[in-house]
């Protein structure tokens, strides 16, 4: 079997793909599902945690920001969030929720992955920056995990693919966009 080449099916039924090609086609699906579930859960967890969304007090984002500012890699980001910790908490939670749901659905997959990478980058530069050794912090691996999805998008089991096929069918039938 050649790598990723089409082979003729027995009985003249047309081309078939090898196992390797099939596995390669779906290789990013487990990563997409994991990141989608994780970010959806993280967003919902924040939205349902009244302590987290408080400006101050135990378990609040305000307290967390105060604690990590001295060791943050980008303290100016902490300063921005400290102007309104509650609003920043809602923005973070809603951002995680939207990124997670869009990733699960494969809707605007590259945009969602870019959003996930930006959230992970901000969290790494602020909350996880002081982790020693660096690989103890969890936000850097999340940042790296988003990169293949930025590059490849969501080809299979995705709303993006369904929309692409729908547009292609419309063009094949001689219909223009908006007809």
TrEMBL record:
<keyword id="KW-1133">Transmembrane helix</keyword>
<feature type="transmembrane region" description="Helical">
    <location>
        <begin position="26"/>
        <end position="44"/>
    </location>
</feature>
<dbReference type="GO" id="GO:0016020">
    <property type="term" value="C:membrane"/>
</dbReference>
<feature type="transmembrane region" description="Helical">
    <location>
        <begin position="116"/>
        <end position="136"/>
    </location>
</feature>
<keyword id="KW-0472">Membrane</keyword>
<dbReference type="InterPro" id="IPR032808">
    <property type="entry name" value="DoxX"/>
</dbReference>
<feature type="transmembrane region" description="Helical">
    <location>
        <begin position="87"/>
        <end position="109"/>
    </location>
</feature>
<feature type="transmembrane region" description="Helical">
    <location>
        <begin position="142"/>
        <end position="159"/>
    </location>
</feature>
<dbReference type="Pfam" id="PF07681">
    <property type="entry name" value="DoxX"/>
</dbReference>
<keyword id="KW-0812">Transmembrane</keyword>
<protein>
    <submittedName>
        <fullName>DoxX family membrane protein</fullName>
    </submittedName>
</protein>
């Amino acid at each position: 079997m050649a790598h990723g080449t089409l082979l003729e099916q027995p009985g003249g039924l047309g081309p078939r793909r090898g196992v390797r090609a099939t596995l390669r086609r779906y290789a990013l699906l487990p990563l997409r599902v994991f990141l989608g579930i994780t970010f959806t859960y993280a967003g919902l967890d924040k939205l349902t945690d009244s302590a987290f969304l408080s400006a101050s007090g135990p378990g609040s984002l305000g307290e967390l920001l105060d604690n990590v500012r001295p060791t943050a890699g980008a303290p100016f980001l902490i300063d921005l969030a400290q102007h309104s910790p509650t609003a920043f908490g809602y923005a973070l939670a809603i951002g995680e929720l939207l990124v997670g749901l869009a990733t699960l659905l494969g809707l605007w997959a590259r945009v969602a992955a870019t959003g996930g990478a930006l959230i992970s980058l901000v969290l790494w530069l602020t909350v996880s920056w002081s982790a020693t050794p660096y690989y103890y912090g969890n936000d850097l691996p999340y940042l790296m995990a988003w990169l293949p999805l930025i590059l490849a998008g969501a080809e299979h089991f995705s709303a993006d693919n369904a929309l692409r096929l729908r547009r292609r069918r419309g063009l094949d039938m001689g219909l223009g966009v908006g007809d």
